[in-house]
Structure formats: structure tokens, C-alpha cells
Amino acid sequence: MSIPLDAANNIYIEVKFCLKKLYIQKTDSSGKIYALWCESLDECEENVEVSIRNKGLKKFVLGMLAGFVAGLFLYWLRKQGYVLNSFAMIVIAAPAAWGLVGLLEMVTSRPFSEMEDWWNGLRGWQRGVLGLLIVVIAFAFMMGAIGTAGVLGLI
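RESULT FIELD:
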């Protein structure tokens, strides 16, 4: 929202609300922008998408790295003679899930909580259809990856 400060000299104050924070800037007739007050310039409209993607990248890298380290730990335990059950997969799944949340945030440029609100706003049958579609696409992707690995002689 632009508020004229001095209409004769074309000086305006622009007020932006971004992520529950307020940013106010002054623009003069030459188009030069002066920041009057802002609580957080980093999280204003033009930088929100980049900020969310960067946070998503951090979550993705840290989650996948932690999952890999957990997998190495479980591998080491097996080499030591311990018999692992299916509950041991939780050690890998938890950080990997965190990494996948980061991947989702990187791809969509939306925080996970916002996507969760959107998902919960769908009707039951819509969630069922969309969830089934996601599972089918993921299964097709995995089978394609396994088939490609087989053709290339990796497995």
C-alpha cells in the first residue's frame, strides 16, 4: 500500500506486511528508496521465496546426511553381529523424513505448515484421491529407478 507523503514532490511511503512483520520504505521522485523502519528486511515479499528455499535446502541436506550416518551406524551394528529388526529402520526414517520435508519446501517455496493447512482443508475424498495419486507416482518413480539400475547393470 502506497501512502503519499509529499504529493508535490512525488514522495510516497510504501507499507508492506510480510510474514507478520512490518516494512516501511520511502520513495522519492527519482525512484530512490530509503528504508524508514523495518523489523526484518530479509523476510519481506521478494525475499520470502528465497528464504524458504534456503531453509528447505538446509533441512534436506541435514536430513539426508543424518539418515546416511544413521544407515552407516546400522550397517556397522550388523557387521558387529547384531540382528536388527524392522524397528531399526526408524533410525533412518526419522531424519530422512525431515530431509523430505526440506525437499518439499525447496520445490514448492512454501513452508511445510502452510502445505499442512492446505492439505487439512481438503475434503476426505479429495485427500484420498490425491494421496493415492502421490503413492502411485512414487511407486512408478521407484520402479523406473530400479529398472534403470537393472538395465545399467548396477543391480
